[in-house]
Amino acid sequence: MKNLTKTFRTCVSAALMAALFVPAIPSAAQAAAVDAADARQLDQAVAALRGISTMKADFVQTDRKGQVLRGTLTLKRPGRIRFQYEKSAQMLIVGDGRALTLVDYAVRQVQRWPISNSPLGALLDPRRDVAKYGRVMSTGNPNVTSVEVRDSSHPEYGVITLIFTRNASAPGGLELSYWVALDSQNQRTTVALSNHRYGVPVSDNDFRWNDPRPQTRR
Fold first, then answer.
1. Residue 92: beta bridge partners?
2. DSSP characters over 105-127
3. pLDDT tens for each residue of 104-156
């Protein structure tokens, strides 16, 4: 169970870089064209994220050892997220806009840490400027946009690479397909999304959780 707990924590507090090719250094004229194109792609990706009011999707989480966990993701901007894992995992991750909480029902433990300290801050923290901290990575596919987000002043926050694919029915015409994360300990996690549902009813109660810790009598 300790290994499983570590896997779950890695999902949220760790980040990774996707295996993408970085192009050769262009000439000054080429660089200006590339920079302009990258800026447009980055603006489109940011607009796609900000265009999500609520969303539900299925997810598959894979860690660096190939361990796989499945579940349902619920997102409500700004700041709220819920990873409802498959029943056998007996764990839950909830973000309430300020912090991420990992609830381990198997061992009756709760861990909590600030969203701003997580790579997922790029998705959830309204103060995190994705355009400021993000850069477009080359994919070689005009229908796929990759944005790497890192805060160089806080390397301990890790790196998250967001992968978008073109989808006319998604906000901004781009759909967040998956992200890869790498933390400061080089722990890598991938979360792939499918069956996206936008604008669905999401209640604030969806981000509440039952505390499994024993209640002490006073």
1. 84, 103
2. TTTTEEEEEEGGGSTTHHHH-TT
3. 888 888 988 777 666 666 666 555 566 677 888 888 899 999 988 877 777 77
Weakest-pLDDT range from 15-19, 162-166, 207-211: 15-19
User: Is 54 inside any structural domain?
Assistant: yes
- How distant, in Å, are the alpha carbons of 54, 76, 118, 170, 175 from that of 133? 24, 22, 14, 23, 20
Amino acid type, 92: L
Cα distance between residue 139 and residue 132, in whole Å? 21
Whether 187 contacts 14, CB under 8 Å = yes
Q: What residues contact 155, with CB distance under 8 A and at least 6 apart?
A: 184
d(C-alpha 211, C-alpha 102), whole Å: 11
Q: What local confidence, expressed as pLDDT, does residue 32 receive?
A: 41
Determine the structural domain holding residue 174 and report its residue range.
2-21+31-199
CATH of the domain at 120: 2.50.20.10
Please tell me the chain's helix, strand, coil percentages from 3-state DSSP, rounded to the nearest 5: 25, 40, 35
Beta pairing class for 144-150 and 134-137: antiparallel
99 within some domain: yes
Residue 212 lies in a domain: no
Number of domains in the chain: 1
Global pTM? 0.76
